[in-house]
Amino acid sequence: MPEKIIPDIVVGRLPIYLRALPRMLEEKRRVTSSQELGERLGISAAQIRKDLSQFGEFGKQGTGYSIDYLAEQIRQILHVDRVWDMAVVGVGDIGSAVARYQGFSHRGLRVAMIFDSDPAKIATQESSFTVKDTKTIKESIHEAGIQVAMIATPSQVAQEVAEELVSAGVKAILNYAPINLTVPENVRVQYIDPAIHLQRMTYYL
Amino acid sequence: MPEKIIPDIVVGRLPIYLRALPRMLEEKRRVTSSQELGERLGISAAQIRKDLSQFGEFGKQGTGYSIDYLAEQIRQILHVDRVWDMAVVGVGDIGSAVARYQGFSHRGLRVAMIFDSDPAKIATQESSFTVKDTKTIKESIHEAGIQVAMIATPSQVAQEVAEELVSAGVKAILNYAPINLTVPENVRVQYIDPAIHLQRMTYYL
């Protein structure tokens, strides 16, 4: 594939397309169209065609997309045709829920280790993991070659944790702490903050 | 304020600006600039000025923004200068975490009732709530006049739950189930799915 710069907003829609496809397969479908996919997702068919065309030709005019093939192609584009080990920092309500979450399998992601700074939690069992001391983040994550992490700590320590993760080699951080993180340019951060999503909707009420 | 149509992408940035401001007040700051806010958030100063100018004049050229005043104005714009009662459907890991979450206070949001369909959970205590039967969604939510809800159920029932919520008068849904919902045009949905956020980043790895 030629190395062209794809707008991040387009990249951001690919996981949404990908999520819809296995569901169609479950319904014993084999082929879909940009129209059908668009109706399911509330995205225009033209947008979907334009997005996908940035990466190549995945369907034939008039015959639609092979669902299986399209899913496999999107997995390759997003690099989730392999499994990424992830570290979770912070074993509160969210950290525990994430450690137990079954929804990552088949989506190219897997929690591999979890950390907390609380002496009462370190070395205890949480789901199938033994909680590690956050003091060992740098060494443990570097040694395991982990590049993806989730921060589920209180806001006050999230920036400090992010810096530890970055120094350990992490390049992608999903941050559940309700605070903006400052990271080097070669590191990506995504945010999950329910209040942010909710306030975006209360505007319209 | 004149009723002009503001792009949703602009609306979506306001909660991010708003989140940063109380933190500055904690640091005993009184005034900020689009430059400073931009540096904290990784958004350009020009973008922030342009976004805010859509809603009026909040600062004076050269003197910056009064943090307190700007926060209050954004709260009014987003309608979170009041408190919105919310319903949570699904008392699994995520639903329980949300019910216990302390981060909604001071952000204009409050969990008011929680529902589950599991007879083993109905009528039990979860945080400070007695779990209600999902069969009573329509009546309970309508009676309380609740317009905001969170879905934290398994994917299989999320669409059905969404339809119940909409028929009860809900106009804004935050959906944690990893599935796209189909709702009427006057209802807003936002999605939280960690795998979607993570796959958007693995693209760059």
Give a description of the structure.
- The structure is a homodimer of 205-residue chains.
- Chain A is α/β, with parallel strands linked by helices and 205 residues long.
- Chain A has two domains: 8-77, Arc Repressor Mutant, subunit A, CATH 1.10.10; 84-197, 3-Layer(aba) Sandwich (Rossmann fold), CATH 3.40.50.
- Helices cover 41% and strands 19% of the residues of chain A.
- The first copy, chain A, contains eight helices and eleven strands.
- Chain A has a six-stranded parallel sheet, with helices on both faces. In chain A, strands 1-3-2 form a three-stranded antiparallel sheet.
- In chain A, strand 4, helix 5 and strand 5 form a beta-alpha-beta unit.
- Chain A is elongated and about 60 Å long.
- The N and C termini of chain A lie far apart (45 Å).
- The model of chain A has no long low-confidence stretch (mean pLDDT 93).
- Chains A and B meet through helix 1, helix 5, strand 11 and helix 8 of A and helix 1, helix 5, strand 11 and helix 8 of B.
Q: Which properties best describe this structure?
A:
6-stranded parallel beta sheet, 3-stranded antiparallel beta sheet, 205 residues, Arc Repressor Mutant, subunit A, 11 strands, homodimer, alpha/beta, Rossmann fold
